[in-house]
Each structure stands twice: as structure tokens, then as C-alpha cells.
Amino acid sequence: MTLIEKLAQWCFTPPAFSPHARQLACDAIADTLGCMVAGRNDFSTRAVLQTWPEHPRTRSLDALFNATAAHAIDYDDNFAPGMSHASAVLVPALLAVAQQCDGAQLVRAYLIGLQAQAFVGESIGYQHYTAGWHGTSTVGCIGSAAGVAALLGMDAAGIARALSIAVSLASGVKGQFGTPLKPFHAGMAARSAVDAALLAQTGMQGRADIIECAQGFAELYAGKLSVSALPGENEHVIERIGVMPKKHPCCGSTHRILDAIADLQQRQALSLDDIESVHCQVGIANWRNLAYAQPQDEMQARFSMQYCVAMMLEKGALSVTEFTAQSVRAQTDNALMASISMSPWTAEQEAESRDLPHILTLRFKDGREMVHSRRHARGALDEPFSAAEREAKFHDCCADLPNAGNIYQQLLQLEQQHDLGFMRELMV
């Protein structure tokens, strides 16, 4: 069997998912829906709506609009195995075809699609991401197609066709980070996932060995095949590695440093007047992602270590209100931003260890120095959000939604919901 056939067979007959896995899936779906609301009025979302204003709302366009919104302000979760913002693609793609489904079916399809993303991501390895591919719109597209096909009730052969088709639709480069096109990558991937599954229903097919064959996905997008484990050989990826919800509404490459600042702020008050300089040591890919030392707009600010660190030191926390055009303009002549530097680990250091920390160094005018490091950001499995933190984030995203509290309570009981109509209030 080819890799796609093995994956499709697992997606068609997955093992029973544990209560813990299903609860983690519910949490991820709720988090994504909140991010979707927060991104509905972003320029990137408005642009795609303006581009297709008169078209009937097909399932593919629903996926496009909602996934663009879910990723618009970069508040959505990170997923290491897929090198992606997994849920921003997967949840809108599933919702686009879930009109006749209940909550339990949605949760099951989410877990199938997430495991498929993990398998595809692990089959090509981290070199795919470091080469410059945006895993959200490559791996996310392919894995989500499997989840959509499963939710549509397709058999293993149909899921395999959807996966193969999705390979030909996968695209998106990291050079677009910090622009409105990055959220569109998620929308494009969700639309393509839906299109791949619907096309597969007609019998359209590609090669079943398109991941591993010559001129296939692994060779072209990663240079080599790197399969570590087949689905079903370990516990579900959501329990083994997890999806990581974001504490801060900005690029995840800033988060370990921001959390390090929060750690220090909890220990003692930090006066901005006392700080002489700040240095951030990060991974090479993280350093490359954060390309805007002097951001010109709110999108660039989300990909600026200097802006995010300065705001974190000043405010003590970051919310969606810190990333507006007005907020960015107010920081134009910020002396603290000018004192913030960033450097990456070397390639040799990263070759020796994939688990290098991000290191924050604060230097004070009186000669003192404070150093604090983090290997993982808040939201990881070993430092998960509390129930109160998850709810607070949802309300931060849905501040303008009067019924947010009632909707969140329904999302907490998602598997018991027989009708998903209550979610329409959260969609674009």
C-alpha cells in the first residue's frame, strides 16, 4: 500500500478516540471559532468577501471566507507536526460540509483530519518548513481534505482520491508572512480541501503514491521522504503532542520570549525606565519569520519581535486591541523598540538539538542583567491553558458578540449538540 492508501484506510476506520482526545478537540474547535469572530472585520477577510460578492455561498467559498477570518489576526493555534495552524484550515473546511452533522461527528472528523495533517507533515519533515513553505496551506490543505472526505462519509478509496487531489492544490510560501495574503493562505487551503473532497466524490483521481513517488510531494516540497510512524501506531497526536492555542494575538515565533517576559513580570515589577536593552535568542526559522523590526501596520506588527516585546513590557499582556493601525503608529518613535535586538541560533547548534530554548536577556541601566529562557510557550501540553484562560480568550475574541457567553457554554458541550446551527452566529 502507498502512504496515501495507508492513511486513507486509517481515516476510514480510525480507532475509538479517548474522552481526553475528544475534549481537546472540542477546546481546539471553540478556540478556532473565537479567532474566526475576531478576524471577521480584518482587511484580509473583507478582501475575499469583496472579491466574490455576488456569487452564491458555495461550500468551497464558505471554507475560504471562514478560514481566512480564523487566521486573520494570527491568534489561532499552532501545530508542530504539521508545521501549521492546523485548526484554522481544518475547522472551517469541516463546517463547510457539516450542515447535516451533529457535534460528535464534527469532533470525530476533526480528530481524523488533525491526525492526517500530522502524518503528512511528518512524512516530509521540518525541512519543508525551513525551505520556506507555509505548512498551513500545504500540509493543512492535504490533511484537512481527509477530514472533509471522512465527514462526507466517503470510503477509504474516496478518501485516498481526496488526498491525492489535495496534493496538487497545496501551495503557499512563508515569504508572504506579515502581509494580508498570509491569512488568505489558510482560506485557500480550506477551500482546496473542500474542493478536493467534492471532486473525489465524482471519481476524479490522481496517483495514490503521489507523496513518495518521483516528482511527487516529498521530493518537490521537502527533498526527501521522512516517515516516522504510521497513523494508529501511537496514541492520537492531540494527546501525544497536542495543538497549541495562542496566549498572544501575534506570530507564534514571539511567544516563548513573550511568556518569558510574563514569567519575570510575575516575579517582580519591571520599570521601563530602568531597562537599557533587550536581546532575544530564537530559532533560525523563528528569526526568519519575524521580518519587521520597524512595522508599518498591524499585520507587520504581529511579525515584529521588537513591537511585541515592547508592548508586552509596557502593557504586561497583549490582546487584540494592541494590534491596530493606531497602536502601531503610536509606537513609531518608541525608544524601547530601538533597544530590542534578536539573533538566531546557528545551524550547527540546531543540528545538535531540535529543542533549543528561546532566551530573553534584559540589561538594566544600573549594570544588572536578567536572563530567562523557555523551551515551550504557554498552551503546550505540559503547560496548558486553564478553563478560565480558554474562556477569557474566547471573550476577548468575541467582545462585540452579545450572545458569546451562551454560545461558549454550548461549545463546552459540543459532543452533545445535535444541531450545529448555533455556530452560524460565529461565521463570516
- What is the number of strand segments? 4
Please state the second-level CATH architecture of the largest domain: Orthogonal Bundle
Distance between the termini: 40 Å
Largest sheet: 4 strands, mixed
Name of the CATH first level of the largest domain: Mainly Alpha
In the residues, how many domains can be counted?
2
For the largest sheet, list the strands in their spatial order.
2-1-3-4
Please tell me about this protein's structure.
This protein has 2 domains: 290 residues, 2-methylcitrate dehydratase PrpD (Orthogonal Bundle), CATH 1.10.4100.10; 123 residues, 2-Layer Sandwich (60s Ribosomal Protein L30, Chain: A), CATH 3.30.1330. With 428 residues, the protein is of the alpha+beta class. A 4-stranded mixed sheet has the order 2-1-3-4. It has 21 helices and 4 strands. Helix content is 50%, strand content 6%. The mean pLDDT is 95.
Characteristics:
globular; 50% helix; 2 domains; 4-stranded mixed sheet; 2-methylcitrate dehydratase PrpD; 60s Ribosomal Protein L30, Chain: A; 428 residues; alpha+beta
